[in-house]
Amino acid sequence: MRQKLLTFAAAVHLALVVCGAWQTIPLPQGTLGGSATSFYMAMSGADGYYGFFAPVVDPEVRIRFLVVDLDGQEHVEALEVGATSEANLRLGAVGRLLPTSTPERREQILRSLAAAVLARHPHAKEATVLVESFGIMRPEGYFDVPSMSDHRDGGRSVWLPLQAITFGRPEGS
Fold it and tell me: What does the domain layout of the chain look like in residue ranges?
C-alpha cells in the first residue's frame, strides 16, 4: 500500500512538472484546488518552464531587509540565512512566488518574512522588506531581462525596486 501511495504521489508530481513546462495549471485559478496546486507547483519547482534565453526567461527577484534597531541604526540583510546552501536556494526561490501571488497572499508572505527577521533581531523596532528585480527598465515603463542586442547596445542589468513594505513590532513586544 505504501509503495502504491508513493508511486501515485510521484506520478502526480511528474504530471505537474509537465504542466509547468507547458505553463498551464490543471485546475481553475481562483478555486481552492487551483490555488493549492499553484502554490505546490511554485514551492516544489514544478512550475518551471525551462526558458533559458531572453525574452522567455523571467527576471531574477531577490528579497532583502532594511532592519532598524531601537537606536535608529540601520543595516541591510539578505533573506538567505539557511543552514545549508540548498536551504538558501530554496529561501531565494520565495521571490518567485511574489509576481504570481494575489496581493493578499503577497502581503502574507512578506509579513511572515519580516516576522522571521524581527525574531532574529530582538532589538530591532522595524524591518522593511525590499523586493527587487534584476533587469533593465524598458522605455515603455516595464523591466525585463536584456537581450543580446540590448547588451551590445550598452544595456546592463541593475537591481530595480519593485516593492518596499515596512513592518514594525506588535505593541508590547
Answer: 2-44, 60-168
pLDDT single digits (tens) 2-25: 999 999 999 999 898 888 878 788
pLDDT tens for 16-65 read 888 887 878 888 888 988 888 888 888 888 877 666 555 566 678 889 99
Over the chain, what HEC string results? CHHHHHHHHHHHHHHHHHHHHCCCCCCCCCCHHHHHHHHHHHHHCCCCCCCCCCCCCCCEEEEEEEEEECCCCEEEEECCCCCCHHHHHHHHHHHHHCCCCCHHHHHHHHHHHHHHHHHHCCCEEEEEEEEEEEEEECCCCCEECCCHHHHHCCCCCEEEEEEEEEEECCCCC
pTM above 0.85, yes or no: no
92 φ/ψ angles, rounded to the nearest 5 degrees = -65, -30
Q: Do residues 122 and 114 lie in contact, with contact meaning Cβ atoms separated by under 8 Å?
A: no
